[in-house]
Structures are given as C-alpha cells and as structure tokens.
Amino acid sequence: MTQVFKFGGASIKDAAAIRHLGRLLAHFPERPLVVVISAMGKTTNALEALLAAARGDDRDDYRARLESLRGDHLATVEALFGSTAGPVTQRVEALVSELDRRHRAHAERERPFHYDQTVCFGELLSTTIVGAWLDEVGMATEWLDARELVVTDDDHQSASVDWKTTAERVRGLDLADGRLRVTQGFIGATPEGASTTLGREGSDYTAAILAHCLEAEVVTVWKDVPGLFNADPRRFDNAVQFDRISFSEAIELAWHGATVIHPKTLAPLQQKAIPLTVRSFLTLEAPGSTIAGDALHDGDVPAFMLCEEQTLLEIRPRDFAFMDEARQHDILGRLVTAGLHAGLIDAGAMRLSLCLDSHPARLEPLVTSLCADYSVARLDGLTLLTVRHPDDDLLRALGEGREVLAERRNATTAQYLFHTRECPATWHIPE
Ligand SMILES: Nc1ncnc2c1ncn2[C@@H]1O[C@H](COP(=O)(O)OP(=O)(O)O)[C@@H](O)[C@H]1O
Ligand SMILES: N[C@@H](CC(=O)OP(=O)(O)O)C(=O)O
C-alpha cells in the first residue's frame, strides 16, 4: 500500500539537514512511497520579499535578493555534491533564470497571479536538490511536477483543488516500479497550466490531497517536534503529547491555532479513513502521534491554542440601529473580501465584536471600509487563547491576573482574549 511522507522547510534547511533526510528515508525501503517536500528553510518568505522588490522600483534590491536566493541554493548543492555538483548546479541555475524571466513577464499582472508564478520556485528548487541527493545516495527517485498533478482553480494564492481532475491525474501515475517519488508541496496549477499555490504552509495539505487520491495507507508528516501535543510545546512548558486523537478533534485543534498541521489537511484523510501520523525527523525512534477515526481519548486532557498579534474590532451601527442579521451579513462579507478570518465573533444588540489577525495589508483596508459606515473601536496587541475541554477551575486559573477583553464558551471550547503584555512568554498549564 502506498505511503505519503511530508517534510517541511526546517527538515531540509541546509545540506546537513538534507543528508539527514537521506539517512532517515533509508529506514523506509517499502514502496510505493511519495515524498512531499516544502521549500528550504525560510525560502518562501525570501520569495515574498523578492516579489515585493520586483513589483517596486528598486532594481538593486531585486537583484540582491535574487542573487542571495541563487547563492544559498548553489551553496547547498556544492556542500552536498562537491566535485559532482555540475548537473544539479545547472538545473538550479536554469530554475533561477526562469524565475528571473517570469518576473519580467508578469510584473504588470495582478499581484496574486504574479505571487504564484514566483513563490512556486521555492518548492521547485528544493525538490530538484533533494531528489538529486536521494538518487546520489542510491535511492532510485523520480521527480514529479506537482503542477501536473494538483489541478486547481485560478484563485491565486489560495487556490481550490479540482478534486475530480486531480484524482484522475494522480491515479494515472504508475508507482509500481519501486522508485521513490519526490514532489512539491504547496503548489498546483490551473487546467491552462498557470502555477497556483494552496495558501501558506500548504504542503501538509498537498500530502493529504495525494494520499486521498491514491487511497494511501498512511500519511506521515515529519516535524521538529515529537508529535501533536495538547499545546505548542515551545510555548507551554508542561504540554503533553497525544498518542492518538480523532480527526474531528484534531481538526478543531488545527482550526483554532495548533499550527503543527495545516487545517485543510485532515478532512480529505478523514473521508478516506487514512490515518495521519505526526513524527519527529530529529528522533526517528519516537513513536509520534496518530490522528485516526476513533474518538476514544478525545477530551481526556484539555488542549490549548494561542493566536498572537490579534486585533479586536468593536463595530456599532451609527444610527442607533440593532446589529441585526443584515448588518452582520454586510460586515462578515467585508471580512471575506479582505481575506481575514475571525478567531472569535461575539454579537450584542448593538455591537459586533471580531477578533482578527493583525495582518496590516489585510486589516487596514477592512478597517477603512468599516469606518466609512460604522462606528469602530479598535484594540491591538492581543492574544487569543482557545481551550478545548476545559473545566471551570482551569479557566479561572488561566484568567487570573489578566483582563478578559472578549470571551466565548460552548460545551467543548472556551476562548479568551487577553492583552499580550499580560501574557507570559512561556505558559504553564494549571494543574
Ligand atoms: N499542538 C502542537 N503540537 C506540536 N507542535 C505544535 C503545536 N502547536 C504548534 N506547534 C508548533 O508547530 C511546529 C511545527 O510545525 P511547522 O513548523 O509548521 O512544521 P513544518 O513547517 O515543518 O511543516 C513546532 O515547532 C511547534 O512549535
Ligand atoms: N513553503 C510554503 C509551504 C509550506 O508548507 O511550508 P512548510 O511545510 O515549511 O510550513 C510556505 O512556507 O508557506
């Protein structure tokens, strides 16, 4: 049965990490195996900055950024292949030249389209290097272009998958020859062949798309943490790892801010009952966490998600009218247009409170638009804490010494909005 692995930017950030990846994969001789790979390290951020430079007037900045991207990838190739680097160097050089050419061709097009034609190069570069390295260390490898497999609409930067066509193409692959398949996460293409992206951090989702279409046995996402915890172990000093958790519960955690898994990843797997394992690429012997169908242990321990850099908007009609459905509809529609997600929505008779990511490029146009028609009060510098399966004592302890600026609670979930300045750098789950 086919397996799908996914490796993120941290696991291939430099030559040493790619060597380590080769050693890790040598422990998994079973085939078919499809390996989905993100861009190296922070390359996607670097490509976003390159795009901004390309669309601005600063040619020198653009040239310097392109050169830095080229230099970083070539240095990795050199460190990996040494005297036999020639052919891979040529392929990397060709990709960087193509990226440069496309910039000039697309600079006048709308930004989301230009974004996708640029940013897809992060994954094209990384998979070119990693695929060649796996071949070099004796793993017969075939490089697949995800843009020929994952067919999407043309909603650039956040494209939706055409599941029917994607399934036809993916099922058309013949994976039976014993070779490892390496392909890119995060990217796809329209039926006409324009590159698209699935939303930042979307490589987990690609692994799920391919697994769904291939009816794979299991998906493993290899992370820099041993598994899925009941809170980000980098932010909570006593977080505990889940051995097993249901799809439904994991979807809630990811949706509310457990960034270890892209929220879109789980539903396509749940539909085909394909388990997802979260494992550490650093400690191969650690068993990881399994997300599967049964809900036996959901709610055994509470879980905590933090969303920082939040802004609270309190929106009131100007004419003493109620905040009725028509006005809520109007306001939430403007959120959709702005591309913003509200982590917490709370309505009163004459007020709608929204907690939003303080993403300046998206938030500022929204605030301007709302201020034209409503009275808007704004508070920045906030942290949204979401707790799954809390009890009253726990919530009391978490709120102690902190002003609650907004809250929401239902049978399974409580959310509190705090001033970030009143929150600790490292949290401790009250015992
Ligand atoms: N509930 C959680 N359990 C484990 N890790 C979490 C959780 N919430 C957030 N994280 C963070 O997710 C990070 C791994 O995800 P990410 O960096 O996006 O992976 P990648 O980019 O390699 O796919 C960890 O370093 C950890 O800080
Ligand atoms: N490279 C893309 C897609 C991705 O998923 O990356 P990672 O797996 O490293 O989070 C991004 O940074 O958004």
From TrEMBL:
The organism's place on the tree of life at top rank: Bacteria
Pathway participation: Amino-acid biosynthesis; L-methionine biosynthesis via de novo pathway; L-homoserine from L-aspartate: step 1/3; Amino-acid biosynthesis; L-lysine biosynthesis via DAP pathway; (S)-tetrahydrodipicolinate from L-aspartate: step 1/4; Amino-acid biosynthesis; L-threonine biosynthesis; L-threonine from L-aspartate: step 1/5
Domain Aspartate/glutamate/uridylate kinase: 1-279
Catalytic activities: L-aspartate + ATP = 4-phospho-L-aspartate + ADP
InterPro entries, alphabetized: AceGlu_kinase-like_sf, Asp/Glu/Uridylate_kinase, Asp_kinase, AsparK_Bifunc_asparK/hSer_DH
Top enzyme class: transferase
Keywords: Amino-acid biosynthesis, ATP-binding, Kinase, Nucleotide-binding, Transferase
Catalytic activity, EC: 2.7.2.4
Molecular function terms, GO-annotated: aspartate kinase activity
NCBIfam families with a match to the protein in the record: asp_kinases
Family the UniProt entry places it in: Belongs to the aspartokinase family.
Protein's name according to its UniProt entry: Aspartokinase
Species for this entry: Halomonas aquatica
